[in-house]
């Protein structure tokens, strides 16, 4: 029998790998519904759906390896990063789904959430006030009107699989929907600023780099406390807290 490898596990959901099959366990069926719909609409490679028996979704493993991981070196070549950028442009140019995704929150809603989160980060002692204030100011550029695009919503570098210089698939579509395209670009390059130019070589023009950098601050501020509460370490080298420090 194949070993069971736990890829991600917290109180909301878990992803396991058994041989060549990924098993996603999620009690929120609306989230699984959104993932299945997004994969059916996305114009980029996605895992094959093998079966679905709530609360489990079974997906075929993708060939190749993840482009990299947050807090670690990228295993992908510059050409692989450029291919990821090209695939992202193809996604963003596709007709957006009706559903609003994680990247679809309005500037006003994000500003209110961000202000509350910054207050909690300081009050809890997780982060020093100066670091939070400087990044809150830097995040302001992301809080502007944007044109709705088909966004992945959680395009971490570990969610893009490559074989050589080709993208073989993108996983974890539960946050997909209408949203800000630059949020995806920022999420993909979070902690890997050295590959931003490679991604843009594949993605093309029309990217406001100040907004991408603002999203680095905004996303990191919004996730630090959640990560700590769910057993992850945003203080590890190269992860969210280092991203916040690098922004200032």
TrEMBL record:
SUPFAM superfamilies per record: Protein kinase-like (PK-like)
Domain (Aminoglycoside phosphotransferase) ranges: 20-212
Pfam name, any one: APH
Top-level taxonomic group: Bacteria
UniProt name for this protein: Phosphotransferase family protein
Native organism: Streptomyces omiyaensis
Lineage: Bacteria, Bacillati, Actinomycetota, Actinomycetes, Kitasatosporales
């Amino acid at each position: 029998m194949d070993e069971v490898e736990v890829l991600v596990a917290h109180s909301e959901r878990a992803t396991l790998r058994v041989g060549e099959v990924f098993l996603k366990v999620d009690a929120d069926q609306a989230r699984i519904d959104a993932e299945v719909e997004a994969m059916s609409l996305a114009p980029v490679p996605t895992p094959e759906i093998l079966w679905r028996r709530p609360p489990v979704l079974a997906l075929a493993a993708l060939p190749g390896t993840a482009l990299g991981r947050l807090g670690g070196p990228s295993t992908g070549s510059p050409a692989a990063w450029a291919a990821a950028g090209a695939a992202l442009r193809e996604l963003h140019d596709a007709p957006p789904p009706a559903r609003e995704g994680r990247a679809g929150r309005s500037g006003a809603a994000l500003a209110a959430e961000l202000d509350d989160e910054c207050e909690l980060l300081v009050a809890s002692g997780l982060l020093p006030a100066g670091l939070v204030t400087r990044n809150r100011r830097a995040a302001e550029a992301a809080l502007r009107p944007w044109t709705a695009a088909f966004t992945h919503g959680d395009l971490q570098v570990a969610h893009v699989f490559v074989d050589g210089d080709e993208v073989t698939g993108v996983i974890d579509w539960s946050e997909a929907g209408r949203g800000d395209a630059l949020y995806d670009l920022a999420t993909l390059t979070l902690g890997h600023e050295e590959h931003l130019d490679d991604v843009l070589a594949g993605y093309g023009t029309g990217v406001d780099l100040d907004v991408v950098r603002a999203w680095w601050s905004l996303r990191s501020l919004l996730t630090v406390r959640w990560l700590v509460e769910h057993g992850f370490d945003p203080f590890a080298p190269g992860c969210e807290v280092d991203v916040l420090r690098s922004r200032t």
